[in-house]
Amino acid sequence: MKSRIVYVIAAALVVTAGCSSTTSESEDSEVSPVSCTSPTVIDGAVNIATTVAPITSIIANIAGGTDATINGIVPEGTNSHTFEPKPSDAATLEQADVIFINGLVLEEPTKDLALANSKDGAVICELGTQILPESEYIYDFSFPLEGGKPNPHLWTNPPMAKEYAAVARDLLSAINPTNSSVFAANFDAFAAKVDALDAAMAAATATIPQDQRKLLTYHDAYAYFAVHYGYTVIGAIQPSSFDEPTPKEIANLITQVRESGVNAVFGSEVFPSPVLEQIGAEADVRYIDVLRDDDLVGEPGDAEHSWLGLMRFNYVTMVEALGGDASALKTVDVSDVTKDNATYPQ
């Protein structure tokens, strides 16, 4: 795995062919992590709550084969950055023995609701802040350093998703030691599938010309992924305010995309962007608008409705659009290691 690195970009909407990097911590960081420790031991069924669907899927792979119940909070296809939980979600959080969230200021309203409603002895576990020290936060286009909110999209990078799963294994084993061997076996099986996906993506990346390993996206979800696989994120259109860029910024982006030599720009199914479509058309590059950040492929119960399926879909889309061969990815088994009984709100 390539070493992690912190990108500090001065302007949220400046696209450059080669972004300089530095290691820094924000003195104004808004990250206030909660601990994954000191659980109450439970002999019976563990009640688990989660936030976004990729995390729900990872947890379901680890907890599968036990009588645990798993309930997601954030509906698929919803902007998790701005999602406001419903009053009924308070009951789900109140009943949970453990609540897994991403953290890194991704789902603060849900975190606040959990802190206000979780029962005595319940654990709120921030996976992102658990595995990533502040010195390794990435601040970039949609998540500038001065805003104090680091890029939270760790789960698009397979090694980090595997670390999420390891945290879940350890915490669930502490909560429910009776099923610790099940959690361990599930983790081993899941980790093997993650490693296979990781190796396939590395092989597919090697087929992309070096000068085409550049990503211009609408939603800024691939910073940690890019470091791991050796891509350059040359820009993200969506500002930290989630507003659209100004006409002047759009004109500058069109010029910069032309100069970068990229073959494609990538939109998001969750964040449809006429602006990015316009940039692609005027810069004469392909506009791919199907990437998914936290909306799993298919419907609950489908074989590809999993974190693994989501990542393979995105990786195949990117590799082929950038002129590479995605055949290694297409053979990866993306099914869950056990039956997924989690609830995914739609």
Please name the CATH topology of the largest domain.
Rossmann fold
The top level CATH class name of the largest domain = Alpha Beta
Distance between the ends: 35 Å
Structural class: alpha/beta
Oligomer: single chain
Shape: globular
Rg on CA atoms, Å: 20 Å
Counting H and I runs of at least 4 residues, what is the number of helices? 11
Helix content: 25-40%
Count of DSSP E strands? 8
Structure characterization notes:
Helices cover about 35% and strands about 10% of the residues. Helix 1 (about 55-65) packs across helix 5 (about 160-175), helix 5 runs antiparallel to helix 6 (about 180-205) and helix 6 runs parallel beside helix 10 (about 305-320). The strands form three sheets. A four-stranded parallel sheet has the order 2-1-3-4, sandwiched between helices. It folds into two domains: about 45-135 and about 145-200, Rossmann fold (3-Layer(aba) Sandwich); about 210-330, Nitrogenase molybdenum iron protein domain (Rossmann fold), CATH 3.40.50.1980. It is an alpha/beta fold.
Summarize the structure.
This protein is of the alpha/beta class. The strands form three sheets. Strands 2-1-3-4 form a four-stranded parallel β-sheet, with helices on both faces. Strands 5-6 form a two-stranded parallel sheet.
